[in-house]
Design a protein that fits this description.
Elements (H helix, E strand, L loop, with lengths): L1 H16 L7 H5 L8 H24 L1 H21 L3 H12 L4 H12 L2 H32 L3 H21 L13 H24 L4 H23 L7 H4 L2 H29 L12 H6 L2 H21 L1 H21 L4 H29 L5 H29 L1 E5 L5 E5 L1 H23 L11 H5 L16 H7 L18
Helix pairs in contact: 1-7, 1-8, 3-4, 3-5, 3-9, 3-17, 4-5, 4-6, 4-8, 6-7, 6-17, 7-14, 7-16, 9-10, 9-17, 12-15, 12-16, 12-17, 12-18, 14-15, 14-16, 15-16, 15-18, 16-17, 17-18
Length: 505
Amino acid sequence: MAVLAAGGIVTTLVQTAVVPLLPQLPRLTGAAPVDVGWVVTITLLTGAVATPLLGRAGDMYGKRRMLLLALGALAAGSLVCAFASTLPWLLAGRALQGVGAAVVPLAISFLRDVLPPQRTGSAVALMSSTVGIGAALGLPLAALLVQYADWHAMFWAVTVLTTGVLALAWRLLREEPVRSPGRFDLPGAFGLSTGLVLLLLALSKAGEWGWGSGRTLGLAGAALLILTGWTVHQRRAPRPLVDVRLATRPAVLLPHLAALLAGFAFYANSLVTAQLVQAPRATGYGLGLSMVAAGACLLPSGVIMVLCASLSARMSAARGAKATLALGTVVIAAGYGLRFVDSRQLWAVIAGAAVVSVGTALAYSALPMLIMRAVPLEQTAAANGLNVLMRTIGQALCSAVVATVLAQHTRLFTDPAGAAVSAPTLDGYRTAFVAAGAVALLACTAACLIPRPPRPPLSPLQETEPDARPELPLPSQLPPADDLQKATDTSADGRLRPGPGGTTA
């Protein structure tokens, strides 16, 4: 569990650690400022493709093997970035790092196979919380390394961490017994990869290109056409990459929809907080903090997600994962309500972000439980990979929407020295908070519509011999202890004789 959790933290840390480096990359690599955004986009694209593909491969060929493959790609990509001095090599390394996005869903599915049922809930909750932990640690640690060391030091540190996790995983994780037979659906993999790349490219660049631009609409239309054809192929394939019929059932479809909406709502918190506290004081609301201090504002959120892991597991065990998901999305909306009311003071910003993190921890821990409850054991990794993919799409959509909103509310401010400063207004941030809170409430609606789990089917023994496995009586239905003692007395021939009222032991 510790090894898998460390893998999840490193994976998420890699995705956020590059953010402090973006403003300096044009100078460091000699690339145009408009091109350095691909350092983030390429990781998003490869991660979105690798997550469902490695999930299905994990069900077929072993989740341990795919975990080692994903961690190996993450380590190799970090090493390439550590040696890179030009943008093409940096993009190649970041593309390999994106494959590590499959670690968390694969780890969750692996835990279902090897842990006893009473420990699965807490383990899944902890793995889900690693998403927030890595995001909270990535910004301040990366900012410290970038500020006080060479920028390659960040990638060297990630290489060492990932290599250590990979070695421990290879040494400690054992092969799981559950496999799904059949051949890997290569045409389905190609169609899904192409459609996802076009869709996420359109979403991630919509804020820059414009929502109505020809490139955005063309990519989105091509993605829709390809994914429609892919869906038809999946329905006809004997061993599909994704069981479309299963995925369209309400018990599976609604958790996927809730994951997309929760991903949108969660990402706005990380995306906006660092920008808001770094805004210059001339704006009237900004605190003018450094990148290191801004990243430190997210540390309490990461700690809270760890502390909420056991709470969410107990809540799901007592009330069900559906109730935990609904409560988590409501808490997210409440956190954005706090941020809307007051975002001028540092304590209020940290408190609002922490409340959003509490809701995110509850929601993210409940989603895998809902998926695992609704799909067969041999499809766990593929279904969890698809659920994480939906969260990724939600985050990409959130990034584009927030960028558009803040761009529309950007104006010039005058600092005390008389210089003009361009920054979003407070109303722009509040609009982003309202949008994220509304999406969280939509996720709550989707959670409430998830059907109750069906009663487990009868075993063959129960179907053929109804009385072969009778239900045990409740303690209140048992006779008094004295009668039970008399019921165990044997007669002279060695057979049990009835106690009072015909009771027998």
